[in-house]
Amino acid sequence: MVALVIVAHSAKLAEGVKELADQMVQGRVPIFAAGGLDAHTLGTNVEGIRKALEAALSQADEVLVLMDLGSAVMGTKMAVEMLPEEIRSRILLSQAPLVEGAIVAAVEAAIGKGAAEVEASAVEACRMPKAIR
Question: Are the C-beta atoms of 21 and 105 separated by less than 8 Å?
Fold first, then answer.
């Protein structure tokens, strides 16, 4: 099973993306949010990301992490480095867009695909048309 971790600069954004993805899969995929320095301050919290990764790893064989912006990526890489080396290979950082990617990833994970397949589908979400001209 693949779990998802949503990393964003805003706790509200991370929780909102998690809520939307959860709604799509009705609890069939473990999804964790790590947003903001705290509940009210924008930024990224490496310790919060590490805790989310550990929680996800405790419930799934693999973890796909979707991030919003640059320092979320940097913070996630730092959090991964804090984990024991033998479990780091179970974590995959995604290039996918945060919202669309999380929805696609949740659906793909819910049908039993592995992290690499889930990530590939999530990345393709950036090609989904939004407006017809």
Answer: yes
**One of 9, 21, 67, 101 is an active-site residue; which one?**
9
- Residues 100 and 40: their CA atoms lie apart, in Å, by 25
On whether the CB atoms of residues 75 and 105 are closer than 8 A, the answer is no
- Could you read off the pLDDT of 83-107 as tens digits, one per residue? 999 999 999 999 999 999 999 999 9
Q: Is there a catalytic annotation at residue 40?
A: no
Model's pTM, two decimal places?
0.94
Distance of CA 131 to the CA centre of its chain: 26
Distance CA 116, CA 112 (A): 12
Written as six digits, the tokens of 99 are: 């919202």
DSSP-assigned beta bridge partners for residue 79: none
* Top-tier CATH class for 2-127: alpha beta
> Amino acid identity of 30?
P
